[in-house]
Design a protein that fits this description.
Length: 124
Amino acid sequence: MKKIFIASQEEKFKILLSQTLNYSKNNNMELIMPENQEEFQYIIKREVPDIVFIDVRLNSNLHIELMELLEKDETLEHCYKILFTEKFNYSKERELWQSIVDFCIYMPFDPEYIIQKTSTLFNI
């Protein structure tokens, strides 16, 4: 079973993304959506997901900490990292993101595109 980790504090974002992924009718995937951001790093190490969706709107630069963890931890290096960001976000962090994440998706996102990208990554 393929594991998808969703790192976001935004409940509506998590609901929309989970509904989008469930719509793909891929029964071979498990969605992991921790409620508490303090648990993100612990759970991501324990679960070792295949895809990690990271919401740039996480508090206190947690998105950067997660990306760095995914880059440095050998057990997580296979994870495909997708960052959800806003089109107008042109900060210094963007350079860091581009060197760590595999792909950026700008919000608001197209649900069909998420389904297509996930299906491609899972070879279905």
